[in-house]
Structures are given as structure tokens and as C-alpha cells.
């Protein structure tokens, strides 16, 4: 019976599962653009350093999600690192755009979403894991 009892808030389990699924989707979509010619052509004016970052960050998303699921304090810090790194890459992307680089508007939207999502996950993880330890 203990396997069926989740000792933490149910919504937090949803956040952890979301992080893992988001990571797997990020790895899949980034990997397709990086390693599949047809997907690369379909991506339009993709920015290679942003795609590489997102692809590699996807693995960190999965690890963070597993850590959050297991209520591990290090997952709070990993979530923070992901959020800060995403914001830094987003800033570099902004500089790239301002210097006249080609890009897709969906990349701006996606990076905005990623920055917001990981900022919110970090806050939730801090409030639920760090403060309860």
C-alpha cells in the first residue's frame, strides 16, 4: 500500500513529471533539428547555439525532474542553474538578434516560455523542498 501513497503535495508530483516530459520532448525536438536534415530544413532560421543549449539542457530537465520527484535538495539547485543558464542564453540570443542575426519568432516565444517555466519550477522547488528540509 505504501507505493500508492504519495507523501508530498500532488501538484508537486505533477511539476516533477512535467519537468521529465518537457526534458524528453526538448531532447527529441532539439535532436531532430541537430541530427536530421529534413527537420533542420523545416526549422527555418534556427539559431544553432540556442538549439544546442536546449538539446543539452533537456538532459538536465530530466535529471532535475527525477530529483524533484524524489524530493532531493540538489534538484532545487539544478532547477536554479537551468533557469539562470536559460536566461543567459536568452540574453545571448537577444544580442544575436540585435546584431542582425536571422531567427524565427517561435524561438523567442520558446525561450520566453522556458525561462518562465524553469523560474516557476525553481520557486516551487525552493518553497516546498528547501524550506521543508
Question: Can you put this structure into words, describing what you see?
Answer:
By secondary structure, the protein is mainly α. It is 80% helix and 0% strand. The longest helix is centred in the first third of the chain and has 26 residues, at 10-35. The protein has one domain (10-128). It is elongated and about 50 Å long.
User: Which consecutive residue ranges, at least 5 long each, have pLDDT under 50?
Assistant: none
Number of helices: 5
The number of distinct structural domains comes to 1
Overall helicity: over 70%
Q: Give the percentage of residues in beta strands.
A: under 5%
Radius of gyration: 16 Å
Distance, first to last CA? 25 Å
What class would the helix/strand composition place it in? mainly alpha
Summarize the main sheet: none
Shape: elongated
Overall mean pLDDT? 94
Number of E-type strands: 0
Order of H and E elements = HHHHH
Lay out the secondary structure.
Layout (H helix, E strand, L loop, with lengths): L9 H26 L1 H6 L5 H22 L3 H26 L6 H26 L3
Task: Throw out a few tags for this protein.
133 residues, mainly alpha, elongated
Question: Briefly, what is this?
Answer:
Helices cover 80% and strands 0% of the residues.
Amino acid at each position: 500500500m505504501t507505493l500508492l501513497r504519495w507523501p508530498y503535495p500532488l501538484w508537486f508530483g505533477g511539476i516533477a513529471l512535467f519537468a521529465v516530459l518537457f526534458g524528453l520532448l526538448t531532447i527529441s525536438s532539439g535532436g531532430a533539428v541537430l541530427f536530421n536534415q529534413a527537420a533542420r530544413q523545416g526549422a527555418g532560421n534556427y539559431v544553432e547555439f540556442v538549439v544546442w543549449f536546449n538539446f543539452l539542457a533537456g538532459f538536465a530537465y530530466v535529471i532535475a525532474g527525477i530529483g524533484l520527484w524524489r524530493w532531493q535538495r540538489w534538484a532545487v539547485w539544478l532547477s536554479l542553474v537551468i533557469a539562470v543558464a536559460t536566461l543567459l542564453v536568452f540574453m545571448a540570443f537577444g544580442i544575436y538578434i540585435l546584431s542582425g542575426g536571422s531567427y524565427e519568432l517561435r524561438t523567442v516565444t520558446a525561450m520566453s516560455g522556458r525561462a518562465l517555466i524553469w523560474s516557476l519550477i525553481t520557486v516551487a522547488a525552493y518553497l516546498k523542498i528547501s524550506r521543508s528540509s
